[in-house]
């Protein structure tokens, strides 16, 4: 599905990611973890074809369904994005136009990407909103971004992301800014979408517990290199690399897990 | 014995209408040397409560006392004089926005002392360095601008700024929710030490119950502007009574594996 | 502050500063550089073209154009600076005060500024000249008063956003006075905006001084100014078609330099590189 092989990223002369490799099979979920500066967000943005300004792929390949996309042009990306790979990020509000209703923004995507008529697009949009667990989807369709809570906006963004029926969903800190109960709901939603749509998932998070909720495998990054990867339970319960051990120990030092055994 | 911080019957209204209350008769007590966790989600009023205690939001009813002395009625020069004692300090949620981008870290940390007029610039600089050390930061960061340090460091700078003036009561709004585990632990350890060594009364506001385990002495749960549950931390975390608290706890993700699907059924 | 420092590194800002530097030098020592007395009439050479004696030719009464331009720089620039200075004083201080002194002052100052903004520029200047006498200082007083709302508005806009800034709240919690907050937190953020506005206002004021003197308001004829020269030269366009070129070019180049400088400060290279830097860090 997704195969990242020896990926190097650099900003000018400074190399930031030094040969990251991992593969994601159809329907699988991988968690990309590491502290800030580990290169997890850079890697994820390169996979989406939107590296930060000044950062370029200097080596290696990113294969989406067998095709190397790492040197794709903008136009080639337009074809792939939404239909093969889609993404949600930490701050949903900044990805929506504040002066258009959220429904209209999803309609637009459906009409351009899926070639639906105005009426069909609207019907499909309401359907999608409903399947995202948004109550009163018709009503939400006519609301502006400022009228919705952070959790609702993230659901709208997920609806837009999956509207093109992608094979891979990238979630970059998508639940970090949400309240715990809302985070739990959104994680449940993503878990449900994976099952129903056979979505592959690339989850980027600094919170190991979030990764533990959804992912089959974990890739641990440090300073632009993979230090460890493997099945989630193996990496989190019995980390082999000292850095991963430190991450897990840090995570366990405080938190509910100290008190409650579940 | 009077607690370092006592707030009772706090009401804050939205605008001037008593019908829309952000806080509706909330009480909060923080004795010296204790960490009180204030739990609440978006819209619960937790930030408003902290702002009201700090005097940044107007109280429509209720009182705030620091070491038994009422402070919520102070105005004008009297209020300024009280504030210059630095007894109540508030650490904002977003460290980037709460640091002036044009001031160096040391200037920001020393600001409270400069306002108060303590010592000469060199003395204040020394005090700022001490405060940076207290929160585990390299004093060499003092010459940097907020844009030149990491998010975790900025969070500790705002903590150092509050500590520099020697507070009795420290209010922290979501100090760890945006941090990765290593930075979170660091901040929590600093707070734990401050409570023991400096007898600070600390109010730790967070939406994440999990981060309070092992740190908080007491926990107060705020929901829609009211306290729904309150008690010793272990009791609230292990045997929550109110359904809302139960749901909060069930929503906290665990590193040990997927949480039973719980949140979905209760929304 | 950083915006100002960084802007100076841009080539366009450097060229603009160089041009303005020359204008300032002309203003300071132009009178002494002038080869002739700007008021001396050479009746043997009226409306003469450029020559070895008169590099830029002579005007309709035989005065040396180069000398008049050099001497005129001082009057024109000083007049514009006077107007802008008054505008700064009457605009920036009330602008800051309207944000930090409370509602009553805010309401009052807003109404006064709205009133001023409704007045048409040149007509107000003429009216003031009629009332206070036709002199350069009177005219510049009028222009300065009318520039005040611009400064008031931009200062208010820049400072108003900071009223709720968390670092301002943090300072309030330390017991800082409003004056201290303005000094340590607000002023640095407002300064670049004020500098930009000053540069554009200076450009505008130069044009207004030129138009007013062109209309014969402010400076009485024999005294040389750029606008006055432009006006008199235009009258003899058929005899000396290139005549207005020199004063017009001087006005255009100076105004363009001021605007270019303002642009350079607004286009802050720091923000774009900082964003890239932040993205890399994450």
UniProtKB/TrEMBL annotation, chain A:
The keyword Membrane applies. Residues 2-248 form the ABC transporter domain. It is a peripheral membrane protein. GO terms for cellular component: plasma membrane. Transmembrane segments: none annotated. InterPro entries: AAA+_ATPase, ABC_Ni/Peptide_Import, ABC_transporter-like_ATP-bd, ABC_transporter-like_CS, P-loop_NTPase. One of its GO terms (molecular function) is ATP hydrolysis activity. It is found in: Cell membrane. Keywords: ATP-binding, Cell inner membrane, Cell membrane, Membrane, Nucleotide-binding, Translocase, Transport. It holds the Pfam family ABC_tran. Belongs to the ABC transporter superfamily. This is ABC transporter ATP-binding protein. It comes from Jiangella anatolica.
TrEMBL record, chain B:
SMART domains: AAA. GO terms for molecular function: ATP binding; ATP hydrolysis activity. GO terms for biological process: peptide transport; transmembrane transport. Residues 5-249 form the ABC transporter domain. InterPro entries: AAA+_ATPase, ABC_transp_ATP-bind, ABC_transporter-like_ATP-bd, ABC_transporter-like_CS, Oligopep_ABC_C, P-loop_NTPase. Pfam families: ABC_tran (PF00005), oligo_HPY (PF08352). Keywords: ATP-binding, Nucleotide-binding, Transport. PANTHER family: D,D-DIPEPTIDE TRANSPORT ATP-BINDING PROTEIN DDPF-RELATED, TRANSPORT ATP-BINDING PROTEIN. Belongs to the ABC transporter superfamily. This is Dipeptide/oligopeptide/nickel ABC transporter ATP-binding protein.
Automatic annotation (TrEMBL), chain C:
Pfam families: BPD_transp_1, OppC_N. It is a multi-pass membrane protein. The chain crosses the membrane at residues 12-34, 75-100, 112-132, 138-155, 190-217, 242-262. InterPro entries: BP-dependent_transpt_permease, MetI-like, MetI-like_sf, OppC_N. Residues 73-262 form the ABC transmembrane type-1 domain. PROSITE patterns: ABC_TM1 (PS50928). One of its GO terms (biological process) is transmembrane transport. The keyword DNA repair does not apply. Keywords: Cell membrane, Membrane, Transmembrane, Transmembrane helix, Transport. The keyword Transport applies. It is found in: Cell membrane. One of its GO terms (cellular component) is plasma membrane. Belongs to the binding-protein-dependent transport system permease family. This is Peptide ABC transporter permease.
């Amino acid at each position: 599905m997704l195969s990242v092989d020896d990926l190097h990223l650099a900003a000018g002369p400074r190399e930031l990611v030094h040969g990251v490799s991992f593969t994601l099979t159809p329907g699988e979920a991988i968690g990309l973890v590491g502290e800030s500066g580990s290169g997890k967000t850079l890697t994820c943005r390169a996979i989406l074809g939107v590296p930060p300004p000044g950062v370029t792929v200097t080596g290696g390949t990113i294969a989406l369904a067998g095709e190397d996309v790492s040197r794709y042009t903008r136009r080639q990306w337009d074809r792939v994005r939404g239909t093969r790979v889609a993404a949600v990020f930490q701050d949903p509000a900044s990805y929506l136009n504040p002066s258009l209703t959220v429904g209209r923004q999803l309609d637009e995507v459906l009409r351009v990407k899926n070639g639906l008529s105005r009426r069909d697009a609207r019907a499909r949009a309401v359907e999608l909103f409903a399947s995202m667990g948004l109550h009163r989807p018709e009503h939400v369709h006519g609301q502006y971004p400022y009228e919705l809570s952070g959790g609702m906006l993230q659901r709208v963004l997920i609806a837009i992301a999956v509207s093109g029926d992608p094979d891979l969903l990238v979630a970059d800190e998508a639940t970090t800014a949400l309240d715990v109960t809302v985070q739990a709901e959104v994680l449940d939603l993503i878990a449900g979408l994976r099952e129903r749509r056979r979505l592959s998932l690339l989850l980027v998070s600094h919170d190991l517990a979030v990764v533990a909720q959804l992912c089959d495998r974990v890739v641990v990054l440090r300073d632009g290199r993979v230090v460890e990867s493997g099945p989630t339970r193996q990496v989190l319960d019995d980390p082999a690399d000292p850095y991963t051990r430190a991450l897990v120990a840090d995570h366990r030092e405080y938190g509910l897990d100290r008190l409650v055994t579940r | 014995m009077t607690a370092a911080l006592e707030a009772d019957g706090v009401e804050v209204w939205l605008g001037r209408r008593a019908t829309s209350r952000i806080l509706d008769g909330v009480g909060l007590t923080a004795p010296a040397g204790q960490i009180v966790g204030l739990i609440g989600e978006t819209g619960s009023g937790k930030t408003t409560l902290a702002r009201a205690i700090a005097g940044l939001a107007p109280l429509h009813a209720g009182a705030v006392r620091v070491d038994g002395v009422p402070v919520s009625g102070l105005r004008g020069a009297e209020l300024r004089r009280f504030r210059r004692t630095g007894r109540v300090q508030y650490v904002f949620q977003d460290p980037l926005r709460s640091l002036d981008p044009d001031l160096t870290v040391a200037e920001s940390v020393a600001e409270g002392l400069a306002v108060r007029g303590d010592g000469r610039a060199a003395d204040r600089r020394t005090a700022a360095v001490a405060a940076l050390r207290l929160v585990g930061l390299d004093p060499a960061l003092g010459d940097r601008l907020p844009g030149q340090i990491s998010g975790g460091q900025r969070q500790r700078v705002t903590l150092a700024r509050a500590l520099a003036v020697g507070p009795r009561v420290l209010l922290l709004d979501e100090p760890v929710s945006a941090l990765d585990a290593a930075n979170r632990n660091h901040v929590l350890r600093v707070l734990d030490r401050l409570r023991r060594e400096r007898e600070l009364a600390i109010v730790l506001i967070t939406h994440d119950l999990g981060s309070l385990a092992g740190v908080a002495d007491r926990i107060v749960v705020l929901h829609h502007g009211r306290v729904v549950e309150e008690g010793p931390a272990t009791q609230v975390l292990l045997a929550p009574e109110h359904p809302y608290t139960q749901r909060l706890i069930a929503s906290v993700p665990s590193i040990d594996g997927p949480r039973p699907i719980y949140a979905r059924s209760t929304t | 502050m950083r915006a100002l420092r960084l802007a100076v590194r841009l080539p366009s800002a450097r060229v603009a500063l160089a041009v303005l530097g020359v204008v300032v030098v002309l203003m300071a020592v132009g009178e002494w550089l002038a080869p002739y007395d700007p008021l001396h009439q050479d009746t043997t050479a009226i409306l003469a073209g450029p020559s070895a004696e008169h590099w830029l030719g002579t005007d309709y009464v035989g005065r040396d154009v180069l000398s008049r331009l050099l001497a005129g720089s001082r009057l024109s620039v000083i007049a514009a600076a006077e107007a802008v200075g008054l505008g700064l004083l009457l605009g920036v201080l009330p602008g800051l005060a309207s944000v930090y002194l409370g509602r009553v002052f805010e309401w009052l100052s807003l109404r006064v500024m709205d009133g001023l903004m409704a007045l048409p520029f040149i007509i107000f200047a003429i009216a003031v000249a009629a009332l206070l006498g036709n002199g350069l200082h009177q005219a510049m007083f009028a222009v300065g008063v009318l520039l005040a709302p611009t400064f008031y508005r931009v200062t208010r806009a820049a400072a108003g956003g900071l009223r709720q800034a968390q670092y301002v709240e943090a300072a309030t919690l330390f017991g800082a006075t409003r004056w201290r907050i303005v000094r340590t937190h607000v002023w640095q953020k407002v300064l670049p905006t004020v500098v930009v506005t000053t540069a554009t206002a200076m450009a505008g004021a130069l044009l207004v001084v030129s138009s007013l003197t062109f209309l014969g308001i402010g400076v009485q004829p024999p005294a040389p100014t750029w606008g006055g020269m432009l006006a008199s030269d235009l009258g003899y366009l058929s005899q000396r078609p290139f005549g207005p070129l020199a004063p017009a070019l001087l006005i255009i180049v100076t105004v363009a330099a001021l605007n270019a400088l303002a642009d350079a400060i607004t286009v802050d290279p720091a923000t774009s590189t900082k964003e890239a830097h932040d993205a890399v860090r994450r």
